[in-house]
Amino acid sequence: EIVLTQSPGTLSLSPGERATLSCRASQSVSxxxxxxxxxxxxxxPRLLIYGASSRAxxxxxRFSGSGSGTxxxxxxxxxEPEDFAVYYCQQYGSSPExxxxxxKVEIK
Amino acid sequence: xxxxxxxxxxxxxxxxxLSLTCTVSGGSISSSSYYWGWIRQPPGKxxxxxxxxxxxxxxxxxPSLMSRVTISVDTSKNQFSLKLSSVTAADTAVYYxxxxxxxxxxxxxxxxxxxxxx
Lengths: 108, 118
Hints:
The complex is a heterodimer. By secondary structure, chain A is mainly β. Chain A contains no helices and eleven strands. The mean pLDDT of chain A is 95. By secondary structure, chain B is mostly beta strands. Chain B has no helices and eleven strands. In chain B, strands 2, 4, 5, 6, 9, 10 and 11 form a seven-stranded mixed beta sheet that branches. In chain B, strands 1-3-8-7 form a four-stranded antiparallel beta sheet, with no helix packed on it.
């Protein structure tokens, strides 16, 4: 199975700053079938990005995804207070689908 | 608006079978466009894909759980279900049901905590 490694584990930033989250795959993710989810405490994850770079419906344009092959990035251009949460990447191109261990974006 | 709601016991004894049902409202489960799946999250940990099913009954399971998992669908009730046998404390988790739309999980249930304990 494809192992996804997210870094850093925790990102301490202030509102208005830029956040850059990394997701590295143990082997190439086919057709850039890579998604990003946001999860807040006590809630289900919410789809942000699919196909490595396509924003899901209703997602603000401060969220952007990039990358291909084994290296992917989620960028939040300017952090809003509601963006402090845990972010997971997921590959869905190979079975079984797998998730990264998450990056927590916390208020500095 | 599509909604998914998990239901089932919150406490299961070790070695027994965990059984959960997901009721879908606001849309039909009988569509060839969607798969319906289960994902779990142990407390304070990451997400693990369990498996998925389409309305016709075709299933895909995570190999790590395949020997213990059964996912089924009941189109007449617009529901799908999860059974996980021979549970241990390691199966304690929040269990989410979800919809896959062209391979992407776009809708999630709110999740239900299942604790394995005697």
